């Protein structure tokens, strides 16, 4: 065999490949470091899908090493090339299906809660009967989540099995088995005929699936802009897969294949691990996954002096002179005085004002449902309802004698205010490990609430620490985005 001098075109490809051999690992490490640094901002993102997509990048990089250094059987190179497309497009499909299910679930939960609050405000006498929000009407939302989980599991199975079966089929029907065992990359090209058909077939399928993802999330309007990120990733993957298929048809893809796949995966990593964390500005509003808002927060040393951190809601239609109403009036006045005195524009105080009215609560519930965190505001409202009913029960017990208590129990009015049942329902709905609407609390806070429930030592302050923690999360994360969304709507 005569030695053929590489053409200028081939040399350019090799030099570019060597550059990317050095650049890719540094770039990927930087992406991982950025994800780690911003790990607290990976809200409602499927982290496993992100890391699976990055695995496709490392497979492409492995092929780039093989194309330059050799030393690996050609069969492994062919199989790895087949896996890159489904491993990069598959996670976007999984994220899109999950996001659509979450969007429907949180929309139904928010709609049910707002309807419940409106009906209770119109008929206060019936408000005792519903101990905790979402006690009814949650079945449909739960069914949607279960159905989504089933669809996602089936899709994952199909995405894993299909390329594996295709690889086995391509290897089985290959006539020149010796070529699969060659370790000189020059001998690997062109691919065996079975892989020449299998590779573009899987690439075209991945292209169609990637371009179909924007259709799945077309009606999703989320405040975290996760749908925008998924659309951006999928459209980019679809376009690059199309270019790869076109190059293959034109017969110029063989030498470019490892380099093209590596560049494609680096761009996907940029879209997934860098663009979502760019600072918010008019330039990046459309390409950033969510706006990183910064603002003043109330100082820790005066945080405890602000009333309303765990403040109950104003009474709906309570009679004049009611003890709880007077207490609420004093607290609301204290908030107003504090805000005027300090003249501080802080997230905490602003959220207090917003949640002091039913309309404000309903607006915030709608906003939180769009960023898939409505469990926080629903938990906050549920604890307020618990405190309201706790005060009502204590007021009844203090105002009537023992004989009247026994008589009222048999007549049913006091039975409706079952504090223990309400507290246990809050625990099962928002705190229990297996709850679909679990809020993010420390193990110590969960343990304290569980022990109080098991011992039957419920107090008005049983949920205070948890409520303050969730209030802090909302004021730090959800409320700034709420303000940002309102500003955009008013432009």
TrEMBL record:
It comes from the Eukaryota. Residues 354-485 form the RGS domain. This is RGS domain-containing protein. The keyword Nucleotidyltransferase does not apply. Keywords: Membrane, Transmembrane, Transmembrane helix. The chain crosses the membrane at residues 12-37, 49-69, 75-94, 155-173, 193-213, 234-253.
